[in-house]
Specification:
The chain has 340 residues and is of the alpha+beta class. It is built from 11 helices and 12 strands. The protein has 2 domains: 198 residues, no CATH class; 109 residues, no CATH class. Strands 1, 2, 5, 6, 7, 8, 9 and 10 form an 8-stranded antiparallel β-sheet that branches. A two-stranded antiparallel sheet has the order 3-4. Helix 6 packs across helix 10 and helix 7 packs antiparallel against helix 9.
Amino acid sequence: MEALQIMPTMAQNQSRFNLGEYAEEATIIEESIRPKRVNHFIEANTEEVTMQHLINDCITPVFSKDNELTINHAVFIDTIQEAANSFFSGEQVEQATIRVSHVVKGRIPEAIHKPANQLLESDKTIYYERAAFSIDIPTIYETVEGNRLNLSIVGVRAYNQMNLYSKKVPELFRLAIGFSNQVCTNLCVCSTGYRDDLRVSSASELYRAALELFNNYNPAKHLHLMQSLGRTTMSEHQFAQIIGKMRLYQCLPTGRQKELPRILLTDTQINTVAKAYIQDNNFRGFGGGLNMWKFYNLLTGANKSSYIDSFLDRSLNSTEIAMGINAALHGDERYKWFID
């Protein structure tokens, strides 16, 4: 731990981000008015809970063969919150917004023989199989195509992706740092700001990994990539062609799919993109051209219906699709199949 030197304050570290090198008029300010949220960063079958609920009302699962505790959701969130407060010292780091799904119900030993309709609240135990959280840093922001983007940290934990019947092994987490579109709370993630296979054995290792991710992420370069999307426009015919090819992709033989860039969005989500093209108040393009920034937000908006365990993977894939098709419209070959 003594060799780790990645905990600078933002005041000391402004030049490291060098927002002006890539982004257009990138701005860091000291105070901000946060717009009222009208939806959530993820929806699907999730519900919002508080940290106090996770700490006081939820049990901690264990690895059954040696009865070793897992790193529970509350510890995960609190560790990343501490890392964010440390790394972005001097900025406004908001408390995590937490959403959970797939509740696992149990009961205390004293109530094991009680009929279900006679159980008291004190007899019951619960924990959530899946949890996701978002931490906004509204004093680090930029405006892209009229949309305010706040720097955001998003974490995902899914016990269903681990074998709790084994002995204790390094535990799987997913962690991303990117930008949240305040118009719609859509999450924008790039590859350098995402760890999809973060495996640690303790909260201290998790803290260190979070700091490393924050340090390696370049927000100015990410903003530059997103700004570039607004400079390319597709026709309605091209949009329909892309949507049709994305639907066709789902039906291709596995071998043929592997030859093409991956598409992780489901048929239902692709249908949502098509519907939003006509109806979305912020990003619709029906009857005219659609720039790639709006297309990107149609993808990230549809992704909000993903389950927690696939949410961040599909967030990154939405970025890959938008950037790839944007390049294809300028002659790049990799995503050419989707526009031919």
